[in-house]
Design a protein that fits this description.
Strand content of chain A: under 5%
CATH class of chain A: Mainly Alpha
Oligomer: heterodimer
Helix content of chain A: 40-55%
Radius of gyration of chain B: 22 Å
CATH class of chain B: Mainly Beta
Order of helices and strands of chain A: HHHHEHHE
Structural class of chain B: mainly beta
Largest sheet of chain B: 5 strands, mixed
Number of strands of chain B: 38
Chain lengths: 170, 575
């Protein structure tokens, strides 16, 4: 009985440790840059590799400011000239592939495309960070503090917003 | 001879009855010399007719009336309607759809507004969000010419109202938030060909500064200041766009306008005065050459911009009569300029100001408050006025009867942190996080300002920023609208509320008065909340982020959510 409990403990601990590894894992070879987005690359593996990784999310947050996303979508994703990204409404889809496509190729109503201008690795980091704005990324890896003036509830404490397609096409 | 007199008489009468440009006249008075509706009978004012625009964005435009036709332009997609005033029901004479590039919607800083069209010499002149200026035949709506300046993918847009004078159509550009370099251009009224273009930054030959240039203060004189007051090449992406109001003095032949703030917002990236941003130019309308310039906010740290309207009016000042220019700036001061020279005759605060302590009457220098100097990566609190200014685009009215300037404005402050930012074409070039908040007073206010006595004759408080224009009439009435939907008439001498009507949606438009074909006086205004202050009303803004809508979200969370409210023209008359 005791040994079974111990075994179970070890299994749980190992699982936690592995998950934690994924959360803290640093990727030093992100692969070929500028690779074209195709179905095979959009597997759950690819998304989760970034989404479960605290470093990818934190880097995405920095890039969010560096690449001037804040000026259109708000410092915390509340929107401005561009639509809010912290709410439930998604004009072009909320799954990683759709968000990646919006960032990479741009959209017709004002969103510029970043493909070829920044490394593909960064496109993914931005993608998962954008998902974290509305609580769609796992909260254990999402950023929980701002270095600058606080404008919203931090991403890691933000209740996931159940996505829905936006009615207004803009 | 009698015929000539009759023709002149008709023309003069026509001018009083019409409202041919958003500010009504080149002087930007927004004053109608109609007195049928007055303080005694305004209480009986009734809704006469309405017309839906079908667009659900901020309706900031003024309806335009010439003869028996009213012309309106909607926010993006900038549809132009000509409405027949000679029959009941505002029948549509023609409709013109310029079909602007949808990309422009996403690079418009402050909602997809349009400040209105202008009608002159049988032509309608209208700007579109995607940087086009069109001339349409006023009677048929047929397109006569079309001028394009820039691709909206550069971040450039056009929301301002054109001004037509001396056969020239004057237009400017918007997009300072994207680092767009500002300019004012004159197009030939008949062909749409560009006659001259004057940039707000860069070498003197680009700014059209030549031998005619005589700035009043030494600080605004020098060679190539549009280059020398910037770090290397920063003037190329330095803003100073021309998105506000233009005015014109026909006697002097000078056009007056303010330039927007410098880019980026982070002032540490652009040490220097950043000429010729956040200042006022006087230019010869024929050649475009600069006559004088005065920089209201040198090295503008707070995006104060100087695009607010300049009103051409002659004042009896203590030192004698002067040809003046009245300008209530975003930085919180009402300026009275000598419009011949650019001398500041007075600069008086009309709101609480924490960012500066006054304007030096000898040097013309604005004294900034050391405690509110923005520094990178440090939060600066209680910046008053906010970046929206003590007063923003919302145009004031001047009554020659009361000699008061009626200012619709706001009392907002903000907390801000600036940080390093990179210029990436087509993305915002700001480097700032802003959270606006209430000042010590209510958020909205109408101030009746006496520019000679340099004090308020009276003020009215409103819950929300008063984001509509003002209209003064010879009936001694002042009309304005509120963001919670009220259209109000107050006694222009006392500020006493005499009449109000709820339009359902908030009002951020410009009220006008005109005499209809039947001889009656009408008051008209577009409702449809929006604009920078009203952007929180739309689904694509989430106020849980205080920095949303350029920081306005933090101060406007309680604005009613009229998502389904589309724009509506309201016309009022006595029974």
């Amino acid at each position: 009985m005791y040994s079974r409990f111990l075994e179970a403990c070890i299994v749980v601990a190992a699982a936690l440790l592995l998950a934690a590894c994924e959360r803290e894992k640093r990727e030093f070879d992100p692969g070929v840059e500028g690779a074209r987005l195709d179905k095979s690359m959009l597997g759950v593996d690819r998304m989760e590799r970034y989404e479960r990784n605290a470093h990818a999310l934190a880097t995405g947050k920095r890039l969010w400011t560096w690449y001037n996303c804040t000026g259109c979508h708000g410092n915390g994703g509340g929107g401005g000239p561009g639509p809010a990204l912290m709410d439930r409404q998604w004009i072009y889809g909320w799954d990683s592939a759709s968000i990646y496509k919006s960032i990479a190729d741009g959209r017709a109503n004002g969103m510029p495309g970043f493909r070829g201008r920044i490394p593909e690795d960064q496109l993914w980091q931005l993608t998962v960070y954008v998902r974290s704005l509305s609580g769609l990324a796992p909260q254990d890896g999402a950023p929980n503090r701002d270095d600058a003036l606080l404008t919203r509830t931090p991403e890691s404490f933000f209740d996931p917003q159940r996505p829905e397609a936006a009615t207004e096409q803009r | 001879m009698i015929g000539l007199v009759a023709v002149v008489g008709v023309c003069a009468a026509q001018r009083d009855d019409d409202w041919p440009m958003p500010a009504r006249d080149h002087a930007n008075t927004r004053y109608a010399s109609l007195a049928e509706i007055d303080t005694a009978n305004v209480g009986r004012l009734r809704l006469a007719s309405t017309f839906p625009t079908g667009v659900a964005r901020g309706h900031e435009a003024a309806p335009i009336v010439v003869g028996d036709t009213m012309y309106i332009v909607t926010p993006y997609p900038n549809v132009v309607y000509a409405l027949d005033l000679s029959t009941a029901g505002l029948h549509v004479r023609w409709k013109f759809e310029p079909k602007p590039d949808p990309f422009s919607q996403g690079v418009a800083c402050c909602d997809v507004v349009n400040l209105g069209l202008a009608v002159a010499d049988g032509k309608v002149f209208v700007n579109t969000l995607d940087n086009q200026t069109l001339a349409l035949d006023a009677s048929s709506g047929k397109e006569l010419w079309r001028f394009r300046s820039a691709d909206p993918r550069t971040g450039e847009t056009r929301t301002m109202a054109p001004l037509v004078a001396r056969g020239r159509v004057l237009i400017g550009n918007d997009g300072v938030a994207f680092g767009v370099r500002g300019w004012l251009a004159a197009l030939d009224e008949n062909t749409g060909k560009e006659v001259w273009r004057a940039y707000s930054t860069g070498p003197d030959r680009d700014v059209l500064i030549g031998p005619d240039y005589r700035a009043f203060y030494p600080k605004d004189r020098g060679t190539d200041l549009g280059v020398a007051t910037w770090p290397q090449d920063a003037w190329r992406i330095g803003g100073g766009t021309v998105s506000g109001w233009l005015s014109f003095d026909p006697d002097l032949g000078l056009v007056y306008y303010g330039t927007a703030n410098p880019a980026p917002s982070n002032p540490e990236q652009r040490p220097g005065d950043n000429k010729f941003t956040s200042g006022i130019f006087a230019r010869d309308i024929v050649t475009g050459s600069a006559r004088w310039f005065y920089q209201l906010s040198p090295h503008d740290q707070f995006r104060y911009d100087a695009g607010n309207e300049n009103i051409v009016v002659d004042l009896a000042l203590p030192g004698g009569p002067r040809k003046t220019l009245l300008h209530a700036d975003r930085n919180g001061y009402v300026y009275v300029f000598d419009r011949l020279t650019g001398e500041v005759l007075s600069a008086t605060p009309f709101v609480r100001i924490t960012t500066s302590s006054g304007v030096d009457s000898r040097t013309g220098e604005l004294h900034y408050a050391p405690a509110r100097q923005l520094r990178a990566n440090i939060v600066t609190r209680d910046i008053c006025p906010s970046s929206a200014g003590a007063k923003n685009w919302q145009p004031s009215a001047w009554s020659p009867r009361t000699r008061l300037l009626y200012l619709p404005h706001q009392n907002l402050c903000q907390d801000e942190e600036v940080m390093a930012t990179s210029f990436i074409a087509g993305t915002p070039y700001l480097g700032a996080i802003v959270k606006m908040k209430r000042g010590a007073e209510p958020r909205g206010r109408v101030t009746a300002w006496d520019p000679v006595a340099r004090r308020a004759a009276w003020t009215l408080d409103e819950e929300f920023p008063v984001w509509s224009g003002a209209l003064a009439t010879a009936g001694d009435l002042l009309f304005y609208g509120t963001m919670d939907g009220w259209f109000k008439a107050v006694d222009a001498r006392s500020g006493k509320l005499l009449w109000r009507f709820n339009t359902g949606s908030g009002i951020v438009g410009q009220p006008i008065a005109y005499r209809g074909p039947g001889g009656k006086e009408y008051i008209a205004v577009l409702s449809g909340v929006g604009g920078w202050a009203g952007a929180v009303a739309f689904d694509d803004i989430d106020t849980r982020d205080g920095s949303a809508a350029g920081g306005f979200a933090n101060a406007m969370r309680d604005l009613r959510h009229p998502a389904a409210q589309k724009g509506m023209l309201h016309v009022f008359a006595l029974p």
